[in-house]
UniProtKB/TrEMBL annotation:
Positions of the UniProt region annotated as Disordered: 1-24
Protein name (record): Methylisocitrate lyase
GO molecular function annotations of the record: methylisocitrate lyase activity
Residue runs in coiled coils: none
Catalytic activity: (2S,3R)-3-hydroxybutane-1,2,3-tricarboxylate = pyruvate + succinate
Compositionally biased tracts (Polar residues): 1-16
Species this chain originates from: Cladophialophora immunda
Amino acid sequence: MNGHTSVDTHANGNTPPSSPTPGRRLRQLLETSKDIIVAPGVYDGFSARVALDVGFDCLYMTGAGTCASKLGQPDLGLATLNDMREHAEMIANLDPTVPLVADADTGYGGPNNIARTVEQYHRSGVAALHIEDQIQTKRCGHLAGKEVVSIDTFAQRIAAATQARERIGSDIVIIARTDALQTHGFDEATQRLKAAVAAGADVAFLEGITSKEEARTICQVLAPTPVLLNMVENGATPSWTTEEAQELGFRIIIFPFLAIAPAYYAMRDAFERVKKTGRTGVPGDFTPKKLFSIVGLERATAIDAAAGGSLYSKV
């Protein structure tokens, strides 16, 4: 239904041992794809299911969207490791053949905390996570007033992440994100990403890019390390298409607001319609069965039938 070749899964939702791991799948995309990897931002299971149905090859679990949908709170460092890991595990295992890139904020503490974060994200089926250089009481990268740790502390965070990956034999992709562009300027931000790559990061992420000149330069100076673009609409970064981002040199582009922004407007319109008119205006073809079909009714029916059941045969 989602346009991808499905694979059988164990009862716990993990892919069979013979299948490539999520990290390996993402690495293969980075190594073999000539096109930029497009990862739409999803904020819950339903938005992830819709993105999978459209046929994307990669998904992005937005931290801001997780805070908003799971906690009903702003992205001000309020989400804990458990909040983020639990959300990421659910999304990653809806279709383990589609890699999930997930926000991991600052790593949630010192080297031991960061090691635990990597271990838990790996066991949850996450393909890649990004760790940033903001202080612990962080905020959305497109808000003013950010503060960052020293370059040495940032490098230690990335080193702790990559060493944890090696200890557990994982191939999860480590993405180093710096928010220093707004606080210390382009040259300092570049040095931070170079230090992160030297510490073992696989992908670089310069938050809050403000011009095509900055974009081209960061991709050139960090080559051959892949660079990720965070395409936050109406934020610090100009609005670029996937084609423009690829021309600038980026290898991955994420769209954190792609699902949550239209969802807000659609839901608000529907709520206001009910309040004013008493009618929902829900399209006639959106039946309960359609909803359940989007989130896996066909697969659930097949599993039941394969075991000899007939519980859903008349759904």
